[in-house]
Amino acid sequence: MRSRLRLVAELAGPLAVVAVVAVIGSTMSIAQQGNVTNILVTATIVVALYVFTGNSGVMSFGQISFVAVGAFAAGILTSPTFTRQTNMPSLFKFLSTTQISSFESLLLGAGLGALFAFLVGIVLLRLSGLAAGIATFAVLQITYDVLSYWDKIGPGVMPVVLVPVTTSLVVGALGLGVAIVVAFTYQRTRSCRLLRATREDAVAAQGIGISLFHHRLVAFTISGAIAGFAGALFVHELGSVSTGQVYIDLTFATLAMLVVGGTGSLWGAVLGGIVLGALESFLSNAENGVAIGSLHVTLPNGLSVVIVGVIMVVVLIFAPKGISGNHEFLERFLSERPTKVGTGTEPESIAKVVDEESPEISSPPRPTS
Amino acid sequence: MGTPSPCGRHTSGDDQSLEDDQSDEPVRARMSWIGHLVNAVSLGVVYGLVAVSVGLVFGVLRQVNLAQGEVIALGAYSLWMTQNLPVVVRIVICIAVCVAMSLVIQVIIFRPLRGASALTTLIVTFGLSYALEGVWTIVFGTNGQPVSMLSSLNQVVVGGNVGLRWITLVEMGVGGVFFAVLVLVLYGSKIGVMMRATAEDFRTARLVGVRIDRVVTLAFVFGGVSAAMVAILFTVQTPLVTPTLGFNLITLGLVGTVLGGIDRLGRATAGGFVVGFVNSMLGAVVPQELLVFLPMLTFMFVIVVLVLRPAGLFTPKGSIVERV
Predict the structure, then answer these.
(1) CATH top-level class for A2-362?
(2) What is the pLDDT of residues A273-282, one digit of tens each?
(3) Measuring CA to CA, which of A43, B78, B141, B226 is 20 to 30 A from A78?
(4) pTM given for the model
(5) What is the residue range of B176's domain?
């Protein structure tokens, strides 16, 4: 019973946060709503990052490549064909004539992200540790370079423009909701549990016959799908995209969010994305000048990066598990006590359990009873 | 903040280093393969030095210091701030600044993180690099500062289609001497033996009385010195210091380190050299209109090497893969 409750909380917690953010956002001005939408979309990318890195324990610096591919594909194919013919004259024929709706482009983004991630994963996922980090970083560099200069698949050094702006606050919130549900559902699968076993002890997991490569590839592909989907949301939120927007700065920002939230839980990914996203959004607004009460403050350009960087460093040194402590929402309070299985299901005894429970008992996810 | 592009800027750096008040293309066309080779060696040495500073710290602590790039950047900015002083004084100040900064990073970041995994430190120092890049942007401006440093070294020694410049010789000399000193210290002094023992087995070394703190400090001092040398050699060739300079250098340097085999200093250094060399050579071979795809080619090369030899290009087959 309690484990069922925990499961509900695991999904409902992040979704509730998204809903709250969306409701708060809807009371704001149009310009502010754009910022909130941006936070939600960025949090979607963080969820994508989490699906791979959180579950596998392998750091990837390449996930933004899938965001880039999703954003560019969705942006190009939904922008009006006449602008494509003038702005991107050397485009492949099918790219310059095909026109799809925004909704279709979200699916396309997810599909392309998954495909690209799958292909990259086949080549790279036998690597671990530093080599994997470097190799995924190389993927990011290659994607950036190709998208920036190959004018048959994109606008080259120019940005993709005149993309229909369809990611409203509601769509952004729904998008993040979908990503959370996908990540949660994946977390319940056998493949993900096996992957988590490899994260805890790669050698032992392989010793009992778990294929490191196979399960990493599954996670990587799903992560790529969410990333591509987020990329499509991203381009429809801004109405344009350039390669510089989906490169190292975004990689750093989303990585910082994941780390600050706590790499090991979905709750942490969502929380980190939203909390740090809000802070970053506020700071970069303040760099353009912001009124705090009667005071007009303009922060120096670049300060937001400094603050986010310092927060990331401080969190990693003093609280390496992030603000979520690598726990899912309410996980610690709703966990079954290992000693008295099946008792203490009454609500009033929960409080007692909390008092007695030591914090480290509840970390690994357990199967549904 | 500008977006860093590790390879893009190197090409421009190379272009600048090649120029004799002429456009890029005639110089490129005029140069023979020996000329390209000389340039490639020159860039290789710079990245070899970057790799030394990463490899030393990794050897002792099994941790990655990406913030080393910002040490280089600060060194370069120190050269900008001391433009009116004699060259020798500037070099001394640059080395002092780099060593000091290196030690500060050691105390603030690496001491609390002792025992953390290589990836954790990679991410922490990634964050630190970004924060410092922001600091440089605020303090020194986005567009970079021109530094005049020993520009006479850019004069040609052997002209014609070889195009050998003094700076290349100086680079090779400095790189060679520094590496020789390093080897002498590592293999000929007590602290060097301690250092190698620490690299071999951290806990056992401590058990038998090696003063780990001293060893770590020494590694960071050497890292600082090599960063200072990179700062000096690089600004001679590319007299513009931008906030992204450090990050650009360190990413490719780290790539080289892992590529060569981060487990051993010699292999790591060779890896750094290979990446710089290959990048420069590809830049010479690739046709002008495809030069924009140079980063793609370089990183393709990196991926191919990593997939075929995950433990490093120079790590013998069959040896234990990465202990991290």
Answers:
(1) mainly alpha
(2) 999 999 988 8
(3) A43
(4) 0.84
(5) 8-308
